[in-house]
Amino acid sequence: MHVNTMTWPHGAKCAVLISFDFDAETLWLSRDPRNIRNLSILSFGRYGSSVGVPKILELMRQEEIKSTFFVPGWTAEHHPDRMEAIVKEGHEIAHHGYLHKWPNPDDVAGMTEEIDRGFEWLHKTVGVTPLGYRSPAGESNEPLLKLLISRGIVYDSSFKDDIVPYRQVMPDGSSGLVELPENPTLDDCAYGLSSTTTPRPLFGKEHVLGIWQEEFKQTYEWGGLFILVLHPQVTGRPMRMAILRDFIKFTRNFSGVWYATGKEIYQAFLAYERTHLRKAAAE
Amino acid sequence: MHVNTMTWPHGAKCAVLISFDFDAETLWLSRDPRNIRNLSILSFGRYGSSVGVPKILELMRQEEIKSTFFVPGWTAEHHPDRMEAIVKEGHEIAHHGYLHKWPNPDDVAGMTEEIDRGFEWLHKTVGVTPLGYRSPAGESNEPLLKLLISRGIVYDSSFKDDIVPYRQVMPDGSSGLVELPENPTLDDCAYGLSSTTTPRPLFGKEHVLGIWQEEFKQTYEWGGLFILVLHPQVTGRPMRMAILRDFIKFTRNFSGVWYATGKEIYQAFLAYERTHLRKAAAE
Amino acid sequence: MHVNTMTWPHGAKCAVLISFDFDAETLWLSRDPRNIRNLSILSFGRYGSSVGVPKILELMRQEEIKSTFFVPGWTAEHHPDRMEAIVKEGHEIAHHGYLHKWPNPDDVAGMTEEIDRGFEWLHKTVGVTPLGYRSPAGESNEPLLKLLISRGIVYDSSFKDDIVPYRQVMPDGSSGLVELPENPTLDDCAYGLSSTTTPRPLFGKEHVLGIWQEEFKQTYEWGGLFILVLHPQVTGRPMRMAILRDFIKFTRNFSGVWYATGKEIYQAFLAYERTHLRKAAAE
Amino acid sequence: MHVNTMTWPHGAKCAVLISFDFDAETLWLSRDPRNIRNLSILSFGRYGSSVGVPKILELMRQEEIKSTFFVPGWTAEHHPDRMEAIVKEGHEIAHHGYLHKWPNPDDVAGMTEEIDRGFEWLHKTVGVTPLGYRSPAGESNEPLLKLLISRGIVYDSSFKDDIVPYRQVMPDGSSGLVELPENPTLDDCAYGLSSTTTPRPLFGKEHVLGIWQEEFKQTYEWGGLFILVLHPQVTGRPMRMAILRDFIKFTRNFSGVWYATGKEIYQAFLAYERTHLRKAAAE
User: Cα(B90)–Cα(A60) distance, rounded to whole angstroms?
Assistant: First the structure.
C-alpha cells in the first residue's frame, strides 16, 4: 500500500506555509460580473487592499516570516502600491488568474486569457514572473494543468488529496507540476466570510484556533505540510489578525517547524525527489 | 503605501456607534412582496416594534448612550408611536429607504421613489430630515450615491472597506459622502436571524460576545470605528438584550471609548478633514 | 407607547409551555410529496413515533409536567397508539393541520380541507376536539384565521411578535384568536434537524442549553411566556432528551415558574383580559 | 404502546459500530458527473484513499477494533490496493452502490445496475460477496429493498427510525431485511465536509466530541446501537483522526460496550429474534 512521504530540510519535523490569496474585488466580480456596479459588495473585497495587506505585512515583519501571496492580475493592476509593498517585504508573488474566474475546461481560450493576463500584470506591476499557481476557488482540470506547464509554472497549490507535496502525474503518464496540497479546514473563508448571497455563519477566535491548533498538532505528528489559505479581506479584520498572531505564537512552542514560502517548499521537494523519488518520478 | 487614518475628539482612542436598523415588517416585505399576506412571517418583523424598540430604548437610557436608528419610511408610517419614542429619547433618526428595497442601479426611478418616500415619512411622523443613510442589505451604486448627495444626505454607512471614516471619491473625481464603514461581523443578523427560507444557525451569548469583544479589543488597539448594526427584531429578543448590555459593560473597562451617534462621528470627521486632510479631499 | 403586558396566575413570575409538534412523517411529506416513496427520509420522521414519543412521555411523567402536543391529522391516523398514550398521560392535543401543508392564502379550499381533516382524525383516534392550533412551518394568513375561528379554535401559537399572550385583532377590527407567541430561538429544529436537502449544522448540549438558559433568564425577568417548540423526531434523540431534562432542571432553580399547557395559558389570558383588558379587546 | 427492544451478546450494555463509507471520488461524481473533469474537486475524495484509509487502518489496528467499510464498486475498481489492505486487516466489506448514485424508485434498471456492478467489483477486487448494504445518501425505497433481498443482502444500515436493530416489514407484510438504524448526528460529514457548492460550517474537536459523547452516554443508558458513519476523506484528516481516537478512548471508560461489525450485529439480532421475537417476525 503506497503512501506519499517527505523529508523536510534542516531536519524539520513539518513545514508551514502561511499563504494569502489577495483577491480583493475579484472575489466578488468572479461570482457575478454585475457586482462591478454594486459598490458596496466590491467594498468587501477592497478592504483587503485598503487595510488587510498593510496590517498583514506589519504582522509578518514582526514575526519574521516570509509568505506567498497568490494574486489575480486584476488585483495587481488596480492596487500596484500594495504589490510593491508586498515585494519590498520579500514575500513571494504567485499566480492566481486574472479576474479570479473559475477555470472551465470547455473554454480553453478563456482559461488561456486568464493565465496570460495574470502573468502580464504581475510582470507589469512588480516585474515578477511567478513560479507557483493556485486556482481560483481551487478548481482545476487537465487542459489547465497543461497550459500552466507550457507557461513555465512549476508548482501548484489547489488540490486536497495529500498532506505532503508530491509530483502530479498527467493522464498520459508524463510528469506534471509539483503539488503543495491544501487542507480545506485551513481556509479563513470557512469561518469569516459571509454575505447576503452566501449567509455562512461567522466563528470567532476560540472556534478557529481550536480547529487550526488541533490540525497543526496532528500534521506536525505526521510530518506533513501545513498551508494556511488566508485572504486579506477576511484575515485583515481586527479579530482575525489577532487569531493569526496567536496561531503563529502557538506553533512557536513546537521545535522543528519550518516556515517557508511556496517556492522554498517546491525546492525542498525537488531535492527530496532527486534523492528519494527519482525512479518513481521518471515513470 | 497610503492608509486612511483618523483622530477622535476628546483624545478618545476609538469610537463606538451602536446603530439600529428598525426594519420591522419591511425586512420581510422586501425579500418577498407576497409576505404582505403571510401574517406570521410579518410577525417576525413586528416584534421589533412591539417589544424590541421599547426594550432597546430602556437599555440605552440606562446606559446613557445616544444612538442612530436607520428607519425605512414604511416603518415610520406604520409605527409612528415608536418613532416618537425614539426621538423623545434623543436618538438620531437616519434614512434606510422606504420599503427596504435593495437598490437596483438599472431602476433609478425606483431608487428615487424609495429615497423620496423615505424622506417623506421620516418628516411626516417625527419632522426629521435625516443627514445619514444606510442602504437596505448594504448594497450601493453610483446613481444611488449621486441621488443621496442631491437630496442632502451627508454621510453613509453601507460600505465595508475600512476601519476609520473616510470621504468617498466619485468616479469623476469629485468629493462624495463621508463614509462610516461597517464590519460585517458586527451585525446581529449573522447570529440571531433564522427563518424557514434562510435557515441560518443561531448562536448564543458566549459565541457573540466572544466575537464582538475580540473585534472590539483589536479595533480599539487600531484606533478604529466600531459600529454595531443591530435590529430591534433580533437584538430585542430577551437573550440578545442581555448580550448587548454585557457587551456595553465590557467596553466600559476601556478608557477613551467615545460612544457617539452617526451624526457626531460625521462631524468629528469633518473637523479632522479640515485640519488634516484638506488637500486630499480637494483632489 | 403601548406594550402588551400579562399577569400570571398564582402569583407566578413567568409561564413555561413545553410543546411538541408531533409531525412524524408529515414533516417530510409536506416538504415534498414524492417522499412518500423515499422510505429512508420518512424514517427520519417515524423516529418521532417509534422512539421519540415514548421517551418524551416517560420524561414528562417523571417531571410531572403536562404539555401540549400539536398533531397533524395524518400522524394521528397512522400512529393511533401514540395518540392514546399521549392522551392517557393527561397531555393536551391541539391542531396542527392534516398533512402539515403550509397554508396558502390563495387556496382556501385546500386550507379548509387541511383543517377539517385535522379535526376529523384527532376526533376519530382519541375523541378530541382541539381548542388550540399551531400552523405548520409557522405560516399564517387572514383567511386561515377566519377559518379557525369558524371551526371553534380559540387560541393560536404561530406568531413571533410578542413575549406575552395577546388577543389578535382582525383587519375589520373585530376580535380574533388569543395568541401564544413563540420565540424562534426555542425551536429544537434550529439545532438538531439536518438532512441532505437542508444541511443545517448540528449543535450539542452546551450550545443549546447556553441559548435556552439565557433566553429563559431574561424572559423570566420580563415576566413573559416561554414556549419550547420541540419535535419528537428531534428532541427524542438520546442527547436531546438529556438537554430537555437538564433544561427543566435548570428552570426548577427559579421560583414562581408556572408550567402550563396551551389551554391553561389561554384560560389565564381570558381571566387577565376580563379584569385588565376588557375595554381594549372590545375596540 | 409497542417499542422495539434488544438484548446484546455477552451481557453487553450497548453496541458500537464504527463504520466507514469509503466513497472516495464517487461522493463528488454522484453529485455532478461533470466533476470527472474537475480534478481538484475529485482530489477531495481521493484524499480518502491516499491518506484516509491508511491512517484509519493504523488506528483501528492500535485500538483492536474491527469495523465495516461500505464501499461503492467504483472505489474498489479504482483503489484495489486499499481494498486489499482493508480486507487484510480483517474488516468487513459491505455494499454501497457502484457510483454512489442516489436510488431513484422510478429507475429500477438504473438501481439494478448500481447494485449488480457494486457486487461485481467487490468480488473482482477482494473476492467479497457482501451481506450488508448502506444506501448512498441514505435514501431507500421499496423496489430497492426487494432488489437487495433478491441479491442476497441480509442487513441494511440506511434508516433513521430506531435506536436498536429491527426486522423490516415489507408492504405486503412479508419479512424484510434486518435494519441497523443510524443516528444522523453521528455522521462526520455534518461537521467536517464543506465545499464551494455546499458551504457547510466546519466544527472542531470540542464541538464534535461534545455531541458524540453525549449521544453515547444516553444511547448507552438506553441500551441502544451506536453507529458512527465516518468517511475516510473526512475523518482521515489530521484533526479528525484525533477526534476518533479520543472518542474511542472515551467509550473505554464504560463497561459492557460491545464493539462489533455490521455482520456481527446482524447475527446478534438473529439470535435475539430467534429467542424473543419469533412470533412477531413471522407475522
Answer: 46
d(CA D197, CA A110): 22
Do residues D56 and D232 make contact, with C-beta atoms less than 8 angstroms apart?
A: yes
Q: Is residue C1 part of a domain?
A: no
Cβ of B142: how many Cβ atoms within 10 Å? 14
Q: Which residues of C fall within a CB distance of 8 Å from D183? A: 237-238
Residue C147 lies in a domain: yes
Q: Is D183 exposed, middle or buried (0-12, 13-18, 19+ CB in 10 A)?
A: buried
Do strands C175-179 and C166-169 pair parallel, antiparallel, or not at all (unpaired)?
antiparallel
The CATH number assigned to the domain holding B126 equals 3.20.20.370
Give the bridge partners for C195, in sequence order: none
CA dihedral A193, A196, A199, A205 (to 10 degrees): 30
Q: How many domains does chain D have?
A: 1
Nearest CA in chain D to C46: D161
Distance of alpha carbon C10 from alpha carbon C8, whole angstroms:
7
E strands in chain D: 14-21, 68-71, 92-95, 132-133, 155-156, 166-169, 175-179, 225-230, 257-259
C3 in any annotated domain: no
Per the structure, the complete domain to which residue C227 belongs is given by 9-282
Nearest to B203 by CA among A203, C18, C199, C234: A203
DSSP element (H, E) containing B95: strand B92-95
Spatial distance between the Cα atoms of A279 and A167, rounded to a whole number of angstroms: 12
> How many angstroms separate the CA of residue C54 from the nearest CA in chain D?
8
Whether D205 sits inside 8 A of A214 (CB atoms) is: yes
Chain-centroid distance, C-alpha C132:
9
A1 belongs to a structural domain: no
pTM: 0.96
- Give the distance from residue D226's alpha carbon to the nearest chain C alpha carbon, in angstroms: 10
State whether residue C190 sits within 8 Å of chain D by CB.
no
Please measure the distance between the N-terminal and C-terminal CA atoms of chain A and give it in whole angstroms: 18
Nearest CA in chain A to D36: A141
The answer to whether C157 contacts chain B (CB < 8 Å) is no
* Grid coordinates of C4: 402588551
The interface predicted TM-score of the complex, written ipTM, equals 0.95
- pLDDT tens over chain C, length 283 residues: 899 999 999 999 999 999 999 999 999 999 899 999 999 999 999 999 999 999 999 999 999 999 999 999 999 999 999 999 999 999 999 999 999 999 999 999 999 999 999 999 999 999 999 999 999 988 899 999 999 999 999 999 999 999 999 999 998 899 999 999 999 999 999 999 987 777 889 999 999 999 999 999 999 999 999 999 999 999 999 999 999 999 999 999 999 999 999 999 999 999 999 998 665 555 5
Query: Any CB–CB contact under 8 A between A204 and chain D?
Result: no
